[in-house]
Amino acid sequence: MEQLSFIKMHGLGNDFVIIDGREKHPHLTPNALRAIGDRHRGIGYDQLIVLEPSADADVFMRIYNCDGTEAEACGNATRCVAHLIMAEIKQDQAVVETVAGFLNGTQSANGTVVINMGLPKLGWQEIPLAQNEDTLRIPIQAGPLSNPVGVNMGNPHLVFFVEDAEAIDLEKWGPVLEHDSLLPQKANISVASLNTDGSIRLRVWERGVGITLACGSAACAVIVAATKRNLVQGSATVHLNGGPLEMRWADDGSVFMGGAIAFSFSGEIAPGLLSGAA
């Protein structure tokens, strides 16, 4: 089996293995995805991204979690991919297609990448929930966490507002809530608290991954949820474990996310990992 080239990038520590499959698709099995994602025996990543051709955008981005499952959306990965494509086409904007839709990215003057993550979905069938419930206060509870806001940003999120996000044992309660019976597609679990300066502290348990340093789509979900709960007025700095994202829910309904991205390294994936042998 041939080796496969990759680039390792991250957005605030939310890290990605990016493979260009536009000329030759890698067709990675779930075993291979898990082997590559092993942080001790493989390369390690939160999500693996395969770039594919798109008829209507600059690139199609396919997203896999480190447990081998496919994800619909990933904001920080979109910022990394948009940066790569903008450099490739020598433009300051790019359109990235995902299974959740089309996302527009721009390069700002200070070097950060801003993505229009599109319109949030707030209906119970859009989250989705297993039955009709008020998505501003969903009757889901585990330990100290209860009554979250449900938001779909191309993937499902529950946002729990608490007094102190640091005090929540997210490693304990995240996997319990992710698999709640009201969530037929599971969900990303966020705990958020409002700081005195109006910014938001956010910690995230990502569906199929676990606790990550940053999650762009969760930051989108929290700015929507905080605005709906009248905690902020449509914009805020969201502080994740890996750093800040500048978030805005615009008047037209679109959610904008801006922040830093970085290259880590590039290399070749060994044949043993591609065969699924970690």
Strand content: 35-45%
Question: What is the second-level CATH architecture of the largest domain?
Answer: Roll
Largest sheet: 17 strands, mixed
Order of helices and strands: EEHEEEHEEEEEEEHEEEHEEEEH
Count all strands and give the number.
Answer: 19
Distance between the termini: 15 Å
- Class derived from helix and strand content: alpha+beta
**CATH C-level category of the largest domain:** Alpha Beta
For this structure, the CATH topology of the largest domain is Diaminopimelate Epimerase, Chain A, domain 1
Overall tally of domains: 2
Nearest-integer average pLDDT: 95
What percentage of residues falls in helices of 4 or more residues?
10-25%
Classify the oligomer.
single chain
Could you give me the name of the CATH homologous superfamily of the largest domain?
A: Diaminopimelate Epimerase, Chain A, domain 1
Radius of gyration in whole Å, from Cα?
A: 18 Å
Gross morphology is globular
**Uncertain ranges:** none
Work out the helix count. Answer: 5
